[in-house]
């Protein structure tokens, strides 16, 4: 169960694109504004792909703040719901 879950079509499109790019071993560029849910949109398909294929997926961020957010907030949230 995700508290304050809000279904966002743009986030679903991003997730599908990211998973397809991982599956097809190709690059993808996604641009979206602040607060659109980009972090979860790339983490969820990345975790699914890594688990399904038993291959690592590397996530690189521009800021230490985003690294901390991913490690301390987003990944624990995804662990609870998966």
Give an account of the 3D structure:
The structure is a single chain. The protein is mainly α and 82 residues long. The protein has one domain (9-81). The chain contains three helices and no strands. It has helices at residues 9-23, 38-53, 64-81. The termini are close together.
Explain the layout of strands and helices:
Blueprint lengths: L8 H15 L14 H16 L10 H18 L1
In total, how many domains does the architecture comprise? 1
Helix proportion range: 55-70%
- DSSP strand (E) fraction? under 5%
Number of strands: 0
Terminal-residue CA separation: 9 Å
What's the total helix number?
3
* Secondary-structure element string: HHH
* Shape, per Cα inertia axes: globular
Largest sheet: none
The chain-level mean pLDDT equals: 91
Rounded to an integer in angstroms, the radius of gyration calculated over CA atoms is 13 Å
Judged by helices, strands and strand pairing, the structural class is mainly alpha
Task: Flag low-confidence runs.
Answer: none
What is shown here, in short?
The chain contains three helices and no strands. The chain has 82 residues and is mainly α.
Structural features:
3 helices, 82 residues, 60% helix, mainly alpha, 0% strand
């Amino acid at each position: 169960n995700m508290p304050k879950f809000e279904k966002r079509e743009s986030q679903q499109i991003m997730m599908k694109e990211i998973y397809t790019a991982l599956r097809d071993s190709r690059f993808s560029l996604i641009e979206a504004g602040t607060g659109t849910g980009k972090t979860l949109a790339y983490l969820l398909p990345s975790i699914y792909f890594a688990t399904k294929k038993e291959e690592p997926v590397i996530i690189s961020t521009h800021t230490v703040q985003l690294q901390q957010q991913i490690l301390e907030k987003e990944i624990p949230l995804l662990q609870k719901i998966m």
